[in-house]
Amino acid sequence: MKTTIKGLCLALALAAFAGPVAAADGKIDIATDATFPPFESIDANGKLIGYDVELMRAICDAAKLDCNIFNAAWDGMIPGLIDGKYDALISQLTVTEKRRQVIAFSDIYDHPIFRFVAKKGTTVDFTPEGLTGKTIAVQTGTPMDAYVTAHYPSATIKRYDTGSAPYLELTAGRADLHISYQAQIIHGFLATDAGKDFALTGPELTGKDAKEFGEGVAIAVNKKHPELVEAFNKGLAIVRDNGTLKALNAKYFSE
Q1: CA atoms of 90 and 171, how far apart (whole Å)
Q2: Beta bridge partner(s), residue 6
Q3: Residues pairing with 205 in the sheet
Q4: Using omega within 30 degrees of 0 as the cis cutoff, is the peptide bond preceding 38 cis?
Q5: What is the pTM of this model?
Q6: How far is 234 from 18, CA to CA, in rounded Å?
Q7: DSSP state letters, the chain
Q8: How far apart, in whole angstroms, are the C-alpha atoms of residue 87 and residue 226?
Q9: Chain centre distance of CA 241
Q10: Of 1, 138, 172, 227, most Cβ neighbours within 10 A?
Q11: Are 178 and 162 in contact (CB under 8 A)?
């Protein structure tokens, strides 16, 4: 991996981003948590699919980076990036001040909305007092976990390692609420048979409403490798300008 980054740095310096930058020395290892459809998941054939996966491949192609995107456990992703186990992460990672202290980010490529989901017809008072005694299921270590922990201290918060596990708790009646990205709830849960009896509820939340939701989502990179951030930013600019990013949004999130 060190060889890969050194190769990238050297190639960027020599070629000024004019050609392939990493293939000669190996691939850029990029981890993603494939439990979060439609952003990232694994299909019946064992293939990694989803919005973030396609976007990352497009960015790598545009930047002429030889990338290896693979599934990894969410709770070890950021520590693995810091330790050099991975070169980068793409998994709807929100950019927060706390994360900026330990990892670097590419330019932001989306500004998500966060929502709660509950059984249809459920009336919920979203004040701290109103959620006292309610059970909220979240994926551990996410902005949603940080948000409910900070704002609903009297609720029972159940934390899970994967992005799909909270939905199992919700449908089994072991949780009253789940909070996630609105697009993920709509397209990854409500559009399925399992989600037919559930609905979005409560306020639409963004980083403007609570610091836990950050500035937007971006590719995470080890702070020791600003050259990789630069390469991703150039690739992202290309896919934004040539319409690829817009096409992916339409493919995955059109009504």
Answers
A1: 28
A2: none
A3: 114
A4: yes
A5: 0.86
A6: 11
A7: -HHHHHHHHHHHHHHTTSS--STTT-PEEEEE--SBTTTBEE-TTS-EESHHHHHHHHHHHHHT--EEEEE--GGGHHHHHHHTS-SEEEEEEE--HHHHTT-EE----B---EEEEEETT-----STTTTTT-EEEEETTSHHHHHHHHH-TTSEEEEESSSSHHHHHHHTTS-SEEEEEHHHHIIIIITSGGGTTEEEEEEEE-TTT-GGG-S-EEEEE-TT-HHHHHHHHHHHHHHHHTTHHHHHHHHHH--
A8: 11
A9: 22
A10: 138
A11: no
Work out the average pLDDT over 72-97: 96
- Reading the block at residue 103, the tokens are 């990892």
- Write out the two tokens for 242: 């040539």
Q: How far apart are CA 121 and CA 12, in angstroms?
A: 56
Q: What region does 192 belong to: left with phi over 0, alpha with psi -120 to 50, or beta?
A: beta
